Structure formats: structure tokens, C-alpha cells
Amino acid sequence: MALLYETVPTFEDTWIECLGDLGRYRMAIEDDNLKDREVWTSVSRHWYSKASDKAPTTGRLYHHLAILARPNALQQLFYYAKSLCVPIPFLSARESIMTLFDPHLNGSPTRLQEIDAAFVRAHGILFSGKSGDQFASSVNEFIGSLDGHIARNTKRWTENGYYIAVALGCALLEYGSESNSIMMAIKTSRTEDTDVQMDDSETSVTSQKFLDALDFVTRTHNIVFLRFGDPNVNPYLHVTLSFLYHMSQFPTAIGYLEAKMPWKLISLMLNTLLKECPSVDRIESEDFPRPNKEIPRPLPEDFAQRGLLWVDKYYPDDWFSSKVDDDEKYFEVASMTEERQDRCLWLGCRLASSGNWLTYDKSTRQFGVPPQYDVEVPGVGDGSAAQPQGANDDDVIIPDIQAEGP
């Protein structure tokens, strides 16, 4: 197979995936030798990652990577969810993902930390509809431990942060369900090349699964976005803003989300980042904020988001043109801190351009919110000078706002 890969380049993509398959099959039969199993897992992961670089919108490859991610349940959830929320979803993943969820739904013992187990279990309930009576307690357990967990894990949470943010975005899409309100709104808009404005009765028709997911997402946002000045939550913020930016281009789709989103907290997070921003030229420009170097080096969460439905048209065409080794894709370097801040601020400015959810005053260089979202944030006062927050395990409740009509 390796010889075919080298000598028949016409079918290179096929050979690469086949090499991943062979590595996975070899891994599966190495039950007695843990070291050999790990070697073949690494080999298979390398080829599947290479294949996904060439076909980032193909869900099948992320499904295979999910299998190889064991026993990292959070990473498994990320890959399984991603395999269903790309333009070419792998529908068989709807069966495979239950091998991850079933132990948590059945109460079987796992080796996961309690907070991770609660997060996976909540997604399992949302996805399958099983054990619905455990959903509220699972979400409460996750939310109640989240702030302290982030504080203890510090830099280690940067990776978990974008895994969690991607999984939550997929939950809002009901894991790629064609009947999902947001998916239908975007599909309708693209089909007719214009967004169809629904009346109130149509807009309110959303599934309970979506409403539960939305509550789960917003409660998580309300905890994470209170960590002003913590750079370890910025990857989570970046993924969230890219999701909202995409939805903002579809009025009906964002209409399902806008009243629940903690826009005030987001504006305070962005203002905190502005304090570290040496120049606003790049963030105020309509052009994607490229780093000051010839060859772009994507952020770790750029690779994580690549191919997902909500990053369509977000990245420049050449953004992933540089060759980055698999081991280095998710490696954080110091220069990424400033670049990530610029990206978040740029997305904030794009969201603020309409004035519907965020505002941005170029004279004062401050973000704000329209009156309907200008709520008091508990523990922050008026929020004009948000300070970095310490660990706080309390679930902060941001009042729901009824968005005003146009």
C-alpha cells in the first residue's frame, strides 16, 4: 500500500486513508501487546489526520479518529460530533457514538474525572433521548465544578476548552440533524439565496432537545466568560465567537440564539482583551487579521474547527496551506496568545458591525451592548472595568432577554 502511495499519486487520497485503515486493523488485533497497540494507533492516527487535511469536510475521517482517541472521552466526543457536523457527515457515526455514551447512560463505572463524565453524559442524553431524568443533574454537576476545574488545570484547559466549545456548537445543531431549527434556517437561506423571515409561530417551533442544548450552552458560557483576563479560556471564546459570527449571517438562525446569549459578558471579555491590544488597526479592518509573517501558522483551534459547518468562509483560502506536522498542530506557542486575542477582537468587531448584539465605539475603543442586552452582571458591577476573576464554583445566572424585533 505504501508503494502504491508513492508510485500512483493519482489516487493519493485513497491510499492515505487505506494506510490509516490498515494501521487501525493492526491496532485492533494487538490485544496482548499494549506497546505495539499504541504504536499502531499512532500510525493510523497519522494517516487519518493526513487524509482529513486533504478532505476536511469528510466526516468519515473524524469518525475514525474518534475511535483512535480512546480512552480520551472528551476528544472522542469532539471527533464524533464533528463527524456529524461537516458538509459530508458520516451518518454511521450515530451508531458508533453510542459506544461512548452507553456506559455513562447505564451507570457503568468509568475512569473519567467526574466533571468530564458529567459533560459526556449530558451530551449522551441530548443525543439519544435516553435517561432524560439525569440531564438536569448532569448539567448541574458539570456547571458547578467548571470554574474551579479551569482554575486548577490552567494551561491544560486550553485544549479542553475548544473541544468543549466545538461539542456545544454541535449540540446546538442537534449533531447535524436535518430537522434542527438552525440547520433548516441556514439550508433555506442558501437554497433561496436569501434568508426567509419566519413569523412568530414558525420561529417558536423548536425541539425540546434544542432548548435543552441552548440552556446547557448558555450556562457554560456564563461560567467561562466570567474569567476575565484568563488567557486559557480564549480558545473557547474564539470558537464561540466564530460560531456566532457564522450564525449572524443568517437572521433566522441567530434569532433562535440571540435572546439567550450572554452578550454583556462577551463584551466585557472583549474589553479585557482590548487592554492587551497594542494596535486596533487589524481588528477594526474588515479583512481577516493575518499575522505579520508570510506563511500563516493556524491556531490549534483552527485545526479543530476546520471543516465544520460554521467555519464556512471564515478562513482565507490559503490559511491551511503551510505544512504542519501532526504533533505540532495542537502545540501552543507563545506568539499565539496575541494572535488569538486579535482574532477574538476581530470577530467581536464583525458581530458589532450591525449593532444588533454587540456595539463597538471606535473613539473610546470599547465594546458594549444594545439596551436590551445591557443587564447587570452579578459580582462585576457596571462592568466598565472588569477585573480578572478567581475560582468561583457558583453558577452565575444571566437573565434571559427578549430580543426586540426589527
UniProtKB/TrEMBL annotation:
One Gene Ontology CC term in the entry: telomerase holoenzyme complex
Residue span(s) of domain DNA/RNA-binding: 45-309
Name of the molecule in the record: Telomere length regulator protein rif1
SUPFAM superfamilies hit by this protein: TPR-like
Protein's GO biological process: nuclear-transcribed mRNA catabolic process, nonsense-mediated decay
Molecular function terms, GO-annotated: telomerase RNA binding; telomeric DNA binding
One Pfam entry name: EST1_DNA_bind
UniProt-listed Gene3D superfamilies: Tetratricopeptide repeat domain
The organism's place on the tree of life at top rank: Eukaryota
Region (Disordered): 379-406
Stretch forming the signal peptide: none
Cross-referenced InterPro entries: DNA/RNA-bd_Est1-type, Est1/Ebs1-like, TPR-like_helical_dom_sf
